[in-house]
Structure to design on (384 residues):
């Protein structure tokens, strides 16, 4: 097929339709670039520009100072011994699981684990068992259930799981489990714990060492103001040599990292945003206050937040029977809410969702959140 001028016109510079909108999308609020990162995006956008002075792997590049960032700044920030930057949180989880896999071994996941945690385990060939969550509306994880599930796995297979994973917080309800207690329970059985902090690392204070996690995973494009895809993988000294083992044929290359992982724009935007990310987590209490205030305002309209209340995270899941009822007769049907919000320059709730939806208040600020609250109020009154 020949590409003529007409077929090429749909490509080139494409402006985002949502530019200038108030963004409450849980996948985007924590990953919005700082001004420094936007400058880095242009400066380092030419192919593998960071590889100009690469001595063998990205993490040891000294100019730009990726080596200091990966081997000093990030370990200090995360409270862990060794860190690598990966191409995403899911790739980090897979690297850990693949390093521990043996035929017939099991990994224990929390019942609210992200689908990519399941896929990482499946790709590594591990069997999966799940710690159940409580029923609606809380959907919480009981730390003691990790012990109960480990006991069941031992009874079933004759040995404990090779790894356990906790999603902190989960990506649906934004619940923050007692990670320290869960780590303690897992260590009673000598089971290493992976802390999946895709929605926490970079938004809120997280110290893997204080928690007792053996591994910590983060997402740059979800929570560290970075252009993605990019993630981080931290490992304690006890397990670092297992996950970051070197190739026997290419001495500088780490097998699970496939030699090099995130490079170019993604790592340079993470590096550029890092000073702002370190500072912003100091304001976490204000973010929690804003989330709780927002939840209360929507609750007054009959839009009910699910999960922990009072809430401890910016990511929230709502059930909105009043909006669903309106959608049964409104012009546009179940798309009416998306269109009404779009008309008010508010972005983040997926098209077609009215009965329930999730959103994030991270970094939006009380003034803009007030505008979102007013918009919901207007929409309900308009269709009442």
């Amino acid at each position: 097929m020949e590409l003529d001028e007409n077929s090429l016109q749909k490509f080139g510079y494409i402006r985002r339709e949502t530019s200038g909108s108030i963004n409450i999308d849980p996948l985007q609020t924590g990953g919005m670039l700082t001004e420094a990162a936007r400058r880095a995006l242009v400066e380092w956008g030419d192919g593998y520009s960071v590889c100009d002075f690469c001595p063998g792997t990205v993490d040891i590049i000294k100019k730009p100072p990726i080596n200091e960032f990966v081997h000093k700044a990030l370990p200090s920030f995360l409270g862990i011994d060794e860190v690598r930057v990966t191409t995403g949180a899911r790739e980090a989880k897979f690297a850990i699981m693949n390093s521990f896999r043996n035929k017939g071994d099991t990994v224990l996941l929390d019942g609210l684990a992200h689908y990519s945690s399941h896929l990482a385990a499946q790709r590594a060939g591990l069997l999966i068992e799940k710690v159940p969550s409580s029923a609606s509306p809380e959907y919480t994880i009981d730390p003691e259930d990790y012990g109960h599930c480990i006991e069941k796995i031992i009874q079933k297979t004759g040995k404990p799981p090779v790894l356990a994973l906790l999603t902190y917080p989960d990506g649906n309800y934004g619940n923050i489990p007692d990670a320290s207690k869960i780590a303690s329970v897992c260590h009673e059985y000598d089971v290493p714990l992976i802390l999946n902090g895709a929605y926490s690392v970079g938004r809120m204070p997280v110290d893997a060492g204080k928690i007792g996690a053996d591994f910590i995973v983060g997402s740059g494009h979800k929570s560290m103001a970075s252009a993605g895809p990019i993630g981080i993988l931290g490992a304690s000294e006890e397990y670092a040599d297992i996950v970051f083992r070197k190739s026997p044929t290419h001495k500088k290359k780490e097998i699970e990292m496939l030699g090099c992982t995130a490079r170019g724009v993604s790592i340079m935007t993470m590096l550029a945003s890092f000073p702002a990310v370190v500072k912003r987590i100091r304001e976490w209490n204000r973010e929690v206050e804003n989330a709780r205030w927002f939840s209360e305002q929507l609750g007054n309209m009959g839009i009910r937040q699910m999960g922990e209340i009072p809430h401890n995270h910016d990511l929230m899941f709502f059930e909105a029977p009043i909006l669903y009822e309106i959608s049964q007769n409104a012009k546009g049907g179940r798309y009416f809410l998306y269109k009404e919000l779009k008309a008010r320059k508010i972005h983040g709730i997926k098209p077609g969702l009215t009965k329930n939806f999730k959103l994030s208040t991270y970094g939006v600020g009380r003034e803009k959140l007030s505008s979102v609250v007013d918009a919901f109020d207007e929409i309900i009154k308009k269709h009442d």
User: Anything to note?
Assistant: The radius of gyration is 22 Å. The domain at 12-32+282-383 is CATH 3.90.1150.10 (Aspartate Aminotransferase, domain 1). The chain has two domains: 12-32+282-383, 35-280. Residues 23 and 347 are 5 Å apart (CA to CA).
